[in-house]
Design brief:
The chain is mainly β. Helices cover about 0% and strands about 50% of the residues. It contains no helices and eleven strands. Strands 2, 4, 5, 6, 9, 10 and 11 form a seven-stranded mixed beta sheet that branches. Strands 1-3-8-7 form a four-stranded antiparallel beta sheet, with no helix packed on it. Strand 4 and strand 5 form a beta hairpin. The termini are far apart.
């Protein structure tokens, strides 16, 4: 499975971006998916995750109420809608496929990773 993340860019604080993550094979529809982010000099942090059928989602407290994760299994695509962006959201965002059907919070529970897309929020 190959994951291709896109949609990052430069946006002003308060703005919005939508990230996409396209999977190369439809086998991803049986697995949970997640978004993580890594800022310079920091560890890779959990952002959001979604179960295989979209029925269950989890969010980091820092993005709850501002970000929405979704998936379209017919298109083998994962999304992250990011609203009310803040400068502290600046990071490289990675999509990942979980080893299981749900979406865990820990990066060790993910087996495939995309290449990352840069999100920069200016103040």
């Amino acid at each position: 499975v190959q994951l291709q993340a896109s949609g990052g860019g430069l946006v002003q604080a308060g703005g919005s971006l939508r990230l996409s993550c396209a999977a190369s094979k439809r086998t991803s529809s049986n697995n949970g998916m997640g978004w993580f982010r890594q800022a310079p000099g920091k560890e890779r942090d959990f952002v959001a995750s979604i179960s295989w059928n979209g029925g269950s989602t989890l969010y980091a407290d820092s993005v709850k109420g501002r970000f929405t994760i979704a998936r379209d299994n017919a298109k083998s695509t994962l999304y992250l809608q990011m609203n009310s962006l803040k400068p502290e959201d600046t990071a490289i965002y990675y999509c990942a496929q979980a080893r299981s059907s749900y979406g865990p919070r820990t990066h060790n529970d993910y087996r495939y990773w995309g290449q990352g897309t840069q999100v920069t929020v200016s103040s």
